[in-house]
Amino acid sequence: MKHITIEQRYQIEAYLKLNLSKDFIAKELGLDRSTIFREFNRNKQKRGSYSANTAQKCYIDRKDRFEFNRSFTEECEKYVIEKITMDWSPKQIVGYCKKNGIPMVSHERIYQYIRQGKKNGGTLFHHCRHKLKNRKRPVGKHYPIANRTSIDERPEDVSLKNRFGDWEMDTIIGAHQQGAILTLTERKTNFIFIKKLEFGKNSKALRCQVIDTLRPYKNHVHTITTDNGPEFADHLQMTKSINAIVYFAHPYCSWEKGSIEHANKLIRQYVKKDSNLNDYTQAQLTEIQHKINSRPREKLCFESPKEMFYNLVSGKVAFAC
Fold it and tell me: Residue 68: is its pLDDT beyond 50?
């Protein structure tokens, strides 16, 4: 992947000082608009301004940090072999190293190393509790969606839930693939939208439903996080319509979008897993949405998501709990 150069950062800074739009800047530099938005969001200063020198320093710091933590050196390999033969799990190795300041790769990278060794006749896998037998999902990267923006590039404020207007989305599929619904939740208030997908997991129809649902709240949509389902393939059109970048969680990492996973569990109280979703009308789904959004939540100091969401939309209250 080609990175933004320091010269391009100086150009971005100059254009921003002239109050030119990020779309204009992207066109002038020959970059995708999401690249400019991402560059600004990741490297902007506390007061919201952009400095090329500061951005370059942040980039170098991230690069150095990444290389230090992810480099599978010879010393790292020896340490992994020593601990695995002591029947330590990869997660235990990573956790211990993190606590004691020892450079170490991720637990998944260690598993990849063990699998590769097994393939080549190695015996380290015998020290794993499950002997690598139980893994049912594919191994390695799986990025079926073009021009996806990884959750790694999402602003830190989203993870911290410091602001109102960061969303997550998902789909719920009926038994035997019968019917589908779209679910959207705002991370700070846990307000939920539930929409029937008349055309199932069709990406264009889903994109239209997302845009129609969020357009009335366009000023309160900063980011959307989702998984790698092919139904989200039209994410660039969503970004263009509501001016919010869609970020994709890592494959098979549902915990990275925990808010929508929790929302789906609440919906499952009313929509059972053995249900044919074609049997539900939008009116019924809206009623379920209203029930869930009207319940008081401990997280919201026992106010309901509905109250908190619409108060924040109208600017009547600031979130303080």
Answer: no
Greatest mean pLDDT range, 26-35, 103-112, 128-137, 196-205 = 196-205
Instruction: Summarize pLDDT for 172-194 with one digit per residue, the tens.
Output: 999 988 999 999 999 999 999 99
Measure the CA–CA gap between 110 and 84, rounded to whole angstroms: 10
Instruction: Give the tokens for residue 308.
Output: 């908190």
Give exposure, 154-191, as e/b (b: 16+ Cβ within 10 Å): bbeebeeeeebbbbbbbbbbbeeeebbbbbbbbbbbbb
Provide the pLDDT for residue 112: 87
The string of DSSP letters for 9-49 reads HHHHHHHHHTT--HHHHHHHHT--HHHHHHHHHHH--TTS-
77-103 mean pLDDT: 89
Residue identified by tokens 């990444």 is 66
Sign of CA dihedral 153, 157, 158, 163: negative
Integer Cα distance of 186 and 168 in angstroms = 7
**Distance separating alpha carbons of residues 6 and 234, to the nearest angstrom:** 31
Class (C level, CATH) for 149-292: alpha beta
The phi, psi pair for 313, rounded to 5°, reads -60, -40
Sheet of 223-226: strand order equals: 149-150, 245-248, 223-226, 166-173, 180-186, 192-196
0.70 exceeded by the pTM? Answer: no
Nearest to 274 by CA among 173, 143, 192: 173
- Reference 34, options 246, 257, 256; nearest CA is 246
User: Encoding tokens for residue 143?
Assistant: 């990025």
DSSP at 156: H
What is the CA angle 61-62-66, rounded to 5?
120
Domain positions in the chain = 6-68, 71-127, 149-292
